[in-house]
Amino acid sequence: MIKIYDYQYLLQDISKLNGIGKKTSKILKRKKIYKVFDLLWKLPQYYIDRSYISNIKELQIGKIQTIKVKVIKYNFPRVKNLPNRITCEDKTGKIDCVFFNSFEGYIRKVLPLNEIVTISGKITEFRGKYQITNPKYISPDSSLIRKKHNKYALTEGISEKIYNKIIQQVLNNLPNLPEWHNSNILKKFNNISWNLSIKKLHEPKNIGKYNSDFYKRLAFDEILASFMISSQIRKKIKKIKKELKFFNCNFQHEIEKKLTFNLTNDQKKVLLDINKDLKMKEKMFRLLQGDVGSGKTIVALISALNVIESGYQVAVMAPTEILAKQHFNLAKSTYPKNINIALLSGKTISKEKKKIEKEINQHNIDIVFGTHALFQKNIIFKKLGYIIIDEQHKFGVNQRKNLSDKGGKNCDVLLMSATPIPRTLIMSVYGDMDISLIKEKPKHRKEILTYSKLENKINDVIRFVKKEINYGNQIFWVCPIIEESKKVDHVSVINKFDFLQKIFPNKVGLLHGKISTDKKDEILNQFLKKKFKILVSTTVIEVGIDFPNANVIIIENANKFGLSQLHQLRGRVGRGNKQATCILMFSSNLSENAKKRIKILKNSNDGFDISEQDMKLRGFGDILGFNQSGLKNFKLADPMQNEDLFILGEKEIKRIENEKINIGKYKSLLKLYDQADIINDIV
Ligand code: ADP
Ligand code: MG
Fold first, then answer.
1. What residue ranges of the chain are covered by domains with CATH 3.40.50.300?
2. What is the 3-state secondary structure (H, E, C) of 215-270?
3. Handedness of CA 391, 397, 398, 400 (dihedral sign)
């Protein structure tokens, strides 16, 4: 048995609790409740007040009520399927307790003849008499029943009473953890302890008190733990010392002269950040965040040249083959001729692959582009000094940590992401990295015109598309996956494809999730080569790919998408010099909320601004990339409601870092809240 002042009590498997058998434990685990700690965050939804004792005469049919009665008569029929019926009375009347499928012995025990008991349950009527069926709240000690009983959103198979008992047991045994917060912080929450906060959280009268000290304290604990874990990973990475990289930006200057455009100020600044990191003795672990089309690729490719100049190799990883190929082509057309470039794709034939692997191993190749296949065991770099990863928003903290270990201590890491996230979330999502931002869009880029159209106006849209095709432009036509009818997922795209094919014979292509990766790449390549004009697709058009000739995107059922996702989709067009247009289509009249969202999109082309506003309208859980980011969901903390706490958390982490505070005193906090066990080897 573990001593109860220790956090370990809360990290036990739930099956260790009294009253949780195999069955209950299985049900809870299905609900992702594994440890005792997880139980604490399943909060009561509302409560049932069983405290008032009613006279039988005044009972109301259909209500849950409590009575104090004397057991006066048993009726145990010996006929199968007939219920056992126990008659009870108080001064004012009689009531029957009816039991289906209950053993006589049990009934005699809980309702002993001629004794006074308190019973609570739903009052019904049968043949003109009051009745309670299978009452669960029965006790000779009325104080056990006369309470407010929490009602939890229960999983089938666990009864209310049992669940309350389990929770009560945990609350009674809650360890008194040593306080981890500094007194200034604690004061902001009126000095309430963690232990008391948890107890208050489960008190019926406190349901929904989001602004109370106990609630805020617990939310802050969560935020600080999340920030601290990131901060520790970051610190650990910073401790890694690498061999110095020396370069004079010779290749960089060469390529800058060759470009048909000037780098934006933000691009220049980010390059300076990266170059500085590359030259330092600490390993770089940096995120380059920039809206779609902000020009991250060229920045990464230029920095790669500096690493090559310093005598190291570079690996560039993209999420899809086609994107890897675009980056490879860009390098081929802009890099100095003496740089050796390779593309390793799933399609590379195995003889060629072996050759490339050998050349990588002999350092005859300076930079290689590919998908995650680049990190296979048989690919051994002679002198890898830099890993660049594009569109990394699908990685979680854990994956990133593994990544930073890859390539060894001399290997700097740059991640790129076009997924803008609200400011308050940056620390929790990316706190383990240094962050560079590109906010500025390349000059002369025209804003994408955004319109909304009702579906019955499709003829207007067709007319517009005809005109654009006549100008030689290409069109994306996006239909969402209809979730209600999983089986017919692709019907909507296929129908649309048939429909458009009739109007634009031989000018339409089709892409959806059921199409194999190879075929998909082929279709995208044909579209790139302008073999057809309209690409009808689900949302599988990958992020990052440059389609300079596509300048119109039509998005059907636009209300099915989040704002950030619409913004990302819209970013597929408008990368060339032509005026780009995005048409959002709706099947019916828009709700007020939907109208607001469209307005935000029409008025802003800034992904960060949009994600911020999206969060305010839909909650942060829906923000693109957030769910996939592997980031644990907060249990109580809400980035919208608790913005102040997130800011306080950032300040506190900075203080802890600056004053070099020993995080030993946060041990319980970290052990409890770090569900991914990331911190294990640190504290
Ligand atoms: P993202 O940041 O979304 O990855 P890309 O790197 O693919 O964006 O760049 C989008 C397009 O903008 C590319 O065609 C690229 O050549 C172009 N571009 C990048 N930087 C500039 C710049 N400073 N001025 C003009 N065009 C630029
Ligand atoms: Mg990109």
1. 250-438, 449-604
2. HHHHHHHHHHHHHHHHHHHHHHHHCCECCCCCCCCHHHHHHHHHCCCCCCHHHHHH
3. positive
Label residue 494 by pLDDT band (50, 70, 90): confident
- Mean pLDDT over 450-468 rounds to 93
Which residues neighbour ligand 2 (ion) by CB within 5 Å? 544
Ligand 1, atom 5, lies closest to the CA of: 295
Residue 246 and residue 504: Cα distance in Å, rounded? 57
Q: What is the whole-number distance in angstroms between the Cα of residue 294 and the centre of ligand 1? A: 6
Q: How many CA atoms lie within 13 A of 457 on its CB side?
A: 14
**Hey, what CATH topology would domain 250-438 get?**
Rossmann fold (3.40.50)
CA-to-CA distance for 574 and 456, rounded, in angstroms? 26
Q: pLDDT, tens digit, for every residue of 62-80?
A: 999 999 999 999 999 988 7
Dihedral, 179, 181, 184, 190 alpha carbons, nearest 10: -60
Q: Which CATH superfamily is domain 449-604 in?
A: P-loop containing nucleotide triphosphate hydrolases (3.40.50.300)
- The one-letter amino acid code at 490 reads H
Return the number of other C-beta atoms located less than 10 Å from residue 347's C-beta: 13
What CATH number was assigned to the domain covering residues 51-146? 2.40.50.140
Ligand 1 interacting residues, C-beta cut-off 6 A:
261, 263-264, 267, 290, 292-298, 418, 442, 544, 546, 575
Instruction: Give the side-chain half-sphere CA count within 13 A for 46.
Output: 2
**Distance, CA of 655 to CA of 181 (rounded, Å):** 12
